[in-house]
Amino acid sequence: MTNTPLSPGTPLPSGALLPAPLTGTGRRVLSAAQLRALGVPAAESAARARPGGPWQQFLPGVFLLHPGPPTSEERLRAVLLYAGRRPMGGAAAEPGRAMITGAAALTLHGFASAAPLPSLERIEVLVERKRRLRPAGCVRFVRTAELPEPVEVTGVPVAPVARALADVVAGTDDPTTVRLLLAEAVRDGHCDTAALVRELTRARLLGRAHVADAVDGLLAEGRSVAEERLYAMVGRYALPEPLWNVDLRLPGGPHLGGVDAYWPDHAVAVELDTRAPRRDEEPTAPEHTRKREHLERLGITLVHLTPRALREAPEQQAVVVRTALTAAGDGESAAYVIVLPR
């Protein structure tokens, strides 16, 4: 017997071979609409998915073309098909309509503390708020007014780390879980502290005491790690030794602010940009900018370095600082400032 494509409406005899388009790798999970397009009528799909049959209906309108339990990949494909989206990796992908989020997304992003996919009883799918979708089986829908740009992981559209984390945090009251996940996200370079706190703020989660406490610890730890990388950068790339963690003040005048490193002979300062919005506040960018402009009017060059830049490109950041130190001799003399330990 040969595999011949079926015309729509043609019954599939019991025990017949599947059409060739169904036998390829990765085609073991298909929606009812896909099966109809391939020539398998709805009645035949339902018949094959009866108890003891060769197929099974895993979710409403989504079929597994084998009788055994689904693999993790098949579960992900099935929930995306149920949400009305085919997984990425082909011409039929529909960007932006749905993506995996929550615990399953963290597992796909490579979090060591995340549960393995087979152990997850439910898989969360991020969809637009206006879409009318009902939870079924292992699928739980998380709705949002505006979908982020998905990240493709092994052909599966996945919510960005910060968004996936916020969805996990929203669903747990366990302080230990929240603290471990947030710490791993930043420590292992999955996302920046600022991006993470922005997402938690957007989701109105910083009003929860255990989340706010975890973020406080995260910000302190993030600054400490960034400071260590700044110390290492200065030594590794043979920059002049600065005065560390000092406050600048005009004689008899106002306080100019604290900086993480200061070269008084060059009037160059470095500040680690670890700002992050807290509670319902917006980032203090205008205040940050005013500080830099004020110092520059006094002839002091303020260089901002981000923790991410120090982690990913320390040599480049050393070049930025060295250039500022070299250029300092070309400008006008800086105002005299008092330097105090911070």
From TrEMBL:
Superkingdom, natural source: Bacteria
Protein name in UniProt: DUF559 domain-containing protein
Species, as recorded: Streptomyces pyxinae
Lineage: Bacteria, Bacillati, Actinomycetota, Actinomycetes, Kitasatosporales
